[in-house]
Amino acid sequence: MARTTGSDGGKTEAAVREAAVNLIARLGYEAMSMRQLAAEVGVQAAALYRYFPTKEDLLFTLMREHMEGLLEAWNAARPATADPAARLAAYVENHIAFHIERRHATHVSNMELRSLSHERLTRILKLRAAYEKELRAILRDGAEAGVFEIDDVGLTAMALIQMMTGVIVWFRPGERLSIAEVTTTYLSMTMRLVGAKIDAYDAARPRAMDAVAL
Amino acid sequence: MARTTGSDGGKTEAAVREAAVNLIARLGYEAMSMRQLAAEVGVQAAALYRYFPTKEDLLFTLMREHMEGLLEAWNAARPATADPAARLAAYVENHIAFHIERRHATHVSNMELRSLSHERLTRILKLRAAYEKELRAILRDGAEAGVFEIDDVGLTAMALIQMMTGVIVWFRPGERLSIAEVTTTYLSMTMRLVGAKIDAYDAARPRAMDAVAL
DNA sequence: GAATTAATTGAACGTTCGTTTTATTATCTC
DNA sequence: GAGATAATAAAACGAACGTTCAATTAATTC
């Protein structure tokens, strides 16, 4: 046999990406074989090489698009205001929503970095650094404006990101807590952690503005 | 050749364990080959099987001993007092000190769980659950006593553990910050996060007790 | 110092891996 | 409907994998 009826390169590639994210998240990059991935897609292993020249190319593509998607999501969600508390709240909300929605891709991007070549690792880490820099800027502005109480901006940024990203380790959709409840709790923990002077969680929500004492 | 002069089973086994932790942390369990590990120890691959019947046995042994060590360290560091803030401070200090000291082993225990058989995975997760239960008990006591302000004990415990364990991702001994500085900052972030009513960091240190307003 | 035990080597086993090559068939173009 | 192109199957490649086994030598025992 050769080309199968109804075969479509676009659909196959999309199916490969989705299956790869799930398989790598579950088994790990090294443990997933190309034959396993092909079987999941319903295709022979050789067919995968029409879309990705090597296994590492596939991994890198998944990671790069995940990180670019994260930066794009933040650029879309970034509020216009200069208020550090409102910006921090938006950052937290975007981060948690994005990571819960893409748990598997996040797992891959965080756990499989060591399987990339040096050059590609550097490119992914640059994207990550750009994203983290945004948080540090918010924390620095808040600290300088006196609305946050922060010992060490860099260290606090890392602590917050680890805390927020950690959600994907234990969160399972449809269990005890909803995404909204988790986000609310993480927001208040974040605001307390940075020593926010006002109830910035409410202040960050325009519809609740009038109820907040500024 | 066969047995080499000066060869000693005890020393070889210890060398295997140490090399395995470092190699698995750096390359990942699946990516590390038994031949690579043997070369690191200065021995042939077959020699490894005198000490560990399979590669997975080696992994499991490293993980189990790491988790047992963590529980033992906490049992040794656990303070006698009932004061939640003091107990929380002790938990944070012990957690950070232990994890920084054993960065590589922690990496292995956190990242390679999926390479364990179901039965062994369960055993490791039980040890982890026992350790996390200790933190939840502290948080619950503090919330009930009114010295902590906590929305959700389980969620706060997970957030704190993720935040604290995250230290091993970016901390490198001998760089900008010392272990003591990191611990101090994490302690104050923790106390703010749980809404501790008093400066529990100082309260947890007997020598500073008299300076704290109770 | 002979017998026993401990520690290791070197070679080999069967399997699986990522990848390549070639052939074959479906779909599209005109 | 013929020709071009896209999408896949099937088979094969050499390399590397975890593991086993027999042989060999060092250290220990008596």
TrEMBL record, chains A, B:
Taxonomy, superkingdom: Bacteria
Cited PROSITE patterns: HTH_TETR_1, HTH_TETR_2
UniProt keyword annotation of Cytoplasm present: no
HTH tetR-type domain ranges (all copies): 10-70
DNA-binding region: 33-52
Pfam families referenced in this protein's UniProt entry, alphabetically: TetR_C_24, TetR_N
Organism: Mesorhizobium album
Record keywords: DNA-binding
Matching SUPFAM superfamilies: Homeodomain-like, Tetracyclin repressor-like, C-terminal domain
Protein name in the entry: TetR/AcrR family transcriptional regulator
